[in-house]
Specification:
Layout: H1 2-16, E1 25-27, E2 35-38, E3 43-50, E4 57-62, E5 68-70, E6 75-78, E7 87-95, E8 99-108, E9 119-127
Parallel strand pairs: 1-3, 2-9
Antiparallel strand pairs: 3-7, 4-8, 5-7, 6-7, 8-9
Length: 128
Amino acid sequence: MPGKVIAVLLAVLVLTAGCNPSKEVALGAKDSGRQIEVNKGEPLVITLEANPTTGYLWEVVESDQRILRQMGETEFQPESDKIGAPGLQTFRFEAQEKGDVTLELVYHRPWEKDVDPLETFSLQVTVR
């Protein structure tokens, strides 16, 4: 039996030998205005308070998808199961190519034109 355990462990080590799991860079509202560096292939996750039931939501308004690409759809997790509950809106990005990019998100009602957003979130991102 110990031989089988060792064989399984060796197999896992061989399979993961070339893997370099990227750590996730997680940011929130307090990080707005920062300059950050991430490595190519590294995930960047931004989580911001939101309440879509009011019509307001966070949207990306500036980013270079060649350098920093959004992965999947934005996720919303309400803080409770009550109707109209606020919660957290999460964006996932992956650093694609080396370079510098401004990432800007706005919290607004998308149908309201010529109205300033309630909030903005901005980062200067350098991908190494």
